[in-house]
Design goal:
heterodimer; A: 109 residues; mainly beta; 6-stranded mixed β-sheet; 3-stranded antiparallel β-sheet; 0% helix; 44% strand; globular; B: 116 residues
Chain lengths: 109, 116
């Protein structure tokens, strides 16, 4: 049950695109199509922005997109906005019916 | 509207026990997979435990054998019984649920502080 690996920080300018990686193993990210991403602003509750690798919940901007290749999942934020400045966490279903979160990435705009 | 409200957090001495509750409304907890997730101060999210629709339960390695997840369908309430608490268990504890293997709905969290 090791945490998935994310870069500690990613930065970009308004309007640019950034990508956050999330690396696991065949026991989690690589073994299932159940990767999700959450956005968390300081002092707030995490918000689901991507589920099942690339699906967006209703109401989430299409500027957020997800993908996966092998043991690595990615979140891309296009048209970066100041409100996108937050912490982002990936998570994946893992063997033994558990969930595992990523280490988290601080996005600075 | 789905609503999750946690309670039961507080200051507890190392080695002590505490029971967290999560009152749900807007859906039936028996029909969903219900999770506990925690976040230590200034740290990332950590999955703690899940109870599935059928009643199966699973735990993260750091809490297995010390924490027990359960639910009362008649009260539509989820619980987390925590024992042998350690300083490293200090965190905000969230209950969370979703339609599949993802967590869409979260409570506001309850803070547990383990300290002497």
């Amino acid at each position: 049950q090791s945490a998935l690996t994310q870069p500690a920080s990613v930065s970009g300018s308004p309007g640019q695109s950034i990508t956050i990686s999330c690396t696991g193993s065949s026991r989690d990210v690589g073994g299932y199509a159940y990767v999700s991403w959450h956005q968390q602003h300081p002092g707030k509750v995490p918000k689901l922005i991507i589920y099942d690798v690339s699906n967006r919940p209703s109401g989430v901007s299409n500027r957020f997109s997800g993908s996966k290749s092998g043991n690595t999942a990615s979140l891309t934020i296009s048209g970066l906005q100041t409100d996108d400045e937050a912490d982002y966490y990936c998570s994946s279903y893992a063997s033994s019916s558990t969930l595992v979160f990523g280490t988290g990435t601080k996005v600075t705009v | 509207e789905v609503q999750l409200v946690e309670s039961g957090g507080g200051l507890i001495q190392p080695g002590g026990s505490l029971r967290l509750s999560c009152a749900a409304s807007g859906f039936s907890i028996s029909a969903n997979f219900m999770n506990w997730v925690r976040q230590a101060p200034g740290k990332g999210l950590e999955w703690v435990s899940v109870i599935y629709r059928g009643g199966s339960t699973y735990y993260a390695d750091p809490v297995r054998g010390r924490f027990t997840i359960s639910r009362d369908n008649s009260k539509n309430t989820l619980y987390l019984q925590m024992s042998s608490l350690r300083a490293e268990d200090t965190a905000v504890y969230y209950c969370a649920t979703g339609g599949g293997n993802y967590l869409e709905d979260w409570g506001q969290g309850t803070l547990v502080t383990v300290s002497s």
